[in-house]
Amino acid sequence: MKLVVTGGAGYIGSVVAEVLLAQGHDVTVFDNLSTGHRTAVPDGARFVEGDVRDEAALARALDGSVDAVLHFAAFSVVAESVQKPREYFDNNVGGTQSLLRAMSWFDVRRMVFSSTAAVYGTPAALPIEETAACVPENPYGASKLEVERALEAARTEWGLSYAALRYFNAGGATAERGEDHRPESHLIPVVLDTALGRRESITVFGNDYDTRDGTCLRDYIHISDLASAHVLALDAMARGFSGALNLGSEKGFTVLEVIRAVERITGRGVSFHIGPRRPGDPPALLASSRAAVDTLRWQRRASDLDEIVRSAYAWRVANPGGYGG
To answer: 6, 105, 130, 259: which is deepest, by most CB within 10 A?
Structure first.
């Protein structure tokens, strides 16, 4: 298939592009490089530099009988979204609306969308099912939910098929690709950098949540398992699926448990201190992924916390300067 991966120079998008190329697909990566890295784009992918709000640039990427779009281009930092809500809605929602218009011009009728567990807010029950109420507590989650609604409207209006994949916490690395956000805000790489002496300490945002040790609990999934679900979603849409699916490991770990895992894998201590709660952070997010397993015929092969940490550690040791090193 001919596929366009928006945000394909970023962490998740680049790994998905890598997997798609390995399976023989024709891949175009579309990215404005505001947070992604040109060197993360896999060899063999065509690269088009552009912003999802620029419809002329999108036309360059979509021209040529494209079969589907995998859409990762978005701002994605919860705390930043609280500080800059208009920027998040402009980029995440406005950018997707531009992408949908361009797709309609070129009659591209399939999209795999990178959504988030943040659409749920603080859930009434765990694990979270796709039928749970969506009450996001931060602009990031609200922007992703708004996009999901736009996808459903496009399905009704002009026949778009879509899979909105609601991630929990992606982690780990492949041999070639890992996390390199600047600044880095994701927990596992931040803790690893502290263990490696690249940071002095880590702040744990709150220790008075209703969890087993008072710190936030999250569901972690290995990046390779996440990537495989996107490929399977293309097949599911060909079988008639449209809708939202959770992607998680169904195993929850707290911030302190992640820190202990890093200490165990690296053999090094991690200095941390307790800070105030971070605005917009639910106490616990844990997915039910039964629907994804059934619908996508999905198998999670690497989503053990130690394996996630071990692969992320190996990539950071091999790439001490990230993609710029």
So the answer is: 6
